[in-house]
Design brief:
about 100 residues, mainly alpha, 3 helices, elongated
């Protein structure tokens, strides 16, 4: 996130660390650390931050800091979205062919 110039507030950093610790403790055989973190950032944190910024009052001047700061509420929204999709289970593909 640092390479893309995103900054976490101290509260967001604590919340994100606890979320990652909690989720990695309850992983299963389908859990992929890198894939999970990538999806959390791209499909959770950044989208939550964008929704928060776009739904608020428009600043008079474009503030780069506003568009690059991830707050604790963004982590909470991403976590809620993550929990909604956590109930999805991957089912093994159907067997194709004849059975004896």
């Amino acid at each position: 996130m640092k390479s893309r110039n995103f900054v976490l507030t101290p509260e967001a950093n604590l919340r994100l660390n606890s979320l990652i610790e909690k989720e990695t403790r309850q992983r299963d055989e389908y859990f992929g650390n890198g894939r999970w973190v990538h999806n959390l950032i791209e499909h959770g944190l950044i989208k939550s931050m964008v929704r928060r910024v776009m739904s608020g009052p428009r600043p008079e001047t474009a503030q780069l800091q506003l568009f690059s700061t991830i707050e604790a509420c963004d982590v909470e929204e991403a976590e809620a979205k993550l929990l909604r999709t956590a109930d999805l289970k991957i089912t093994p593909p159907c067997r194709i062919g004849f059975r004896a």
